[in-house]
Amino acid sequence: MSVLFEPVALGELQLANRIVMAPMTRSRALVDAIPGSDMVEYYRQRAGAGLIVAEGTAPSASGLGYCRTPAIYSAEQMAGWQRVTEAVHAEGGRIVLQLMHVGRAASLHNKPAGAATVAPSPLRARTQVFSDSHGLVDTDEPQALTLQGISDVIEEYRQAALNARQAGFDGVELHCTSGYLPMQFMATGSNLRSDAYGGDVTGRVRFARETIEAMASAIGAGRVGFRLCPGNPYNDIEDHDPAATAAALCEAVAPLSLAYLHIMRSPLEGLDAFALARRHSPHALILNDGFDGPSASAALASGEGAAVSFGRHFIANPDLVERLRRGLALSRFDRKTLYTPGASGYSDYPAYQTSAQEVAQ
Ligand SMILES: Cc1cc2nc3c(=O)[nH]c(=O)nc-3n(C[C@H](O)[C@H](O)[C@H](O)COP(=O)(O)O)c2cc1C
Predict the structure, then answer these.
(1) Cα dist from 300 to 1, 221, 262, 263, whole Å
(2) How many angstroms separate the alpha carbon of residue 90 from the centre of ligand 1?
(3) Which residue in 123, 131, 157, 173 is a FRET match for 58, CA 20 to 30 A apart?
(4) Right CATH for 3-360 from 3.40.50.10750, 3.40.50.1820, 1.20.58.340, 3.20.20.70
(5) Other C-beta atoms within 10 Å of 88: how many?
């Protein structure tokens, strides 16, 4: 039996197996960024994962920027998430929440009235986002955060970690990639600051470090993870030396006994992100990107990491763990319904027993 199906502890998180569901934005939240019944059912169906990392979720109104993404700053949002965590726990699963502040990768059309778009520096991301009201739109010109503004945002993350625990999550993960706020601070192309939060690599990783420290002090380091993908250019990110930046953050938070580092393969030729993480981080690694059952088993068997996360395979295979265990065929997902509202192409993918393959046999 592959090590994939063996239990593992990541900090305070006890996983029944080493198959993690990667965070995936699916744009199913209801009005006011509240998780509804479709989200409860979708996550309940996937509770066989050793750990679910629930989709990128805003710690504050200014952290929102895409359409129909969830948040966790209001009592109504917390109540919606509580139904999700209760459903997952009732099935014996574990679930942490990914905290995602989009920073400049945002449109005001996707934010509550009065919420600002903020970033380390007043530089617009050369990219577009979709909004239900206006279709594809350019991202906003962001306001540069003041020092007070930075400490306010870190406090929002701290409070969001507390809110997540109160809503029943087993922990939180800080999203430090894909061109969102922590990575905007980390990268030379989006951070032109000359104060303590910019300049050299120590300054550029300070925001992420202090945010992780704040979350760990609020709920315990053993319930906090962070996610990196060195060299990820998504959302117009440019960095002079992505490997050095990622290594600096790993080392900056090394003294904390965090639950895990969720590390994605680098898109850059010659940059081995897993090796970088093993060299610069003492934390348990969740490996990600492009795995299937056999390659995940091989990576864990060779000691590359403690667990493997799967994103796309979980979309059309709610019972992915069972399918991998039994060597069953995997279903393919429909791209057209990745981000559309409602249950279709979301919580209506069947488990194997009732799936089309078997009906056809
Ligand atoms: C529809 C979709 C939404 C995603 N949303 C997020 C997200 O909210 N946060 C994040 O860190 N990664 C996000 N990702 C990336 C996945 O977590 C994962 O890294 C990626 O799909 C590669 O893993 P895979 O090859 O197993 O699919 C998303 C991916 C997909 C396909």
Answers:
(1) 13, 24, 14, 14
(2) 25
(3) 123
(4) 3.20.20.70
(5) 25
- What's the average model confidence in pLDDT over 310-324? 98
Going from N- to C-terminal start, the domains of the chain cover 3-360
Question: What's residue 294's pLDDT?
Answer: 96
Q: Residue 353: its pLDDT value, please?
A: 76
- Cα radius of gyration (the chain): 19
DSSP state of 181: H
pLDDT for residue 34: 98
Tokens found for residue 258: 């965090």
Q: What type of residue sits at position 298? A: A
Distance from residue 41's CA to the centre of ligand 1 (Å):
19
From the CB of 144, is ligand 1 less than 6 Å away? no
pLDDT above 70 (res 29): yes
Distance CA 21, CA 337 (A): 19
Q: What is the pLDDT of residue 354?
A: 55
Q: Given a cut of 80, is residue 96 above it in pLDDT?
A: yes
Distance CA 97, CA 84 (A): 11
* Rounded CA separation 19/308 (Å): 6
pTM of the predicted protein model? 0.97
First to last CA, the chain: 28
Average pLDDT taken over every residue of the chain: 97
DSSP state of 70: -
Over 70: is that where the pLDDT of 359 sits? no
What is the C-alpha separation between 54 and 106, in angstroms, rounded? 20
Dist CA 300 CA 125 (whole Å):
37
Q: Across residues 278-307, what is the average pLDDT? A: 97
pLDDT at site 360: 43
Residue labelled with tokens 């403690």: 306
In this prediction, residue 361 has a pLDDT band, given cuts at 50, 70 and 90, of very low
What are the phi and psi torsion angles at 359 (to 5°)? -60, -35
180 part of the active site: yes
| Cβ-count burial 314-349 (b if 16+ within 10 Å, e if not) | bbbbbbbbebbbeebebbebeeebebebeeebbbeb
Q: What average pLDDT does range 264-286 have in this prediction?
A: 98
Catalytic residue (one of 157, 180, 197, 260)? 180
Residue 333: closest CA among 353, 349, 351, 347: 349
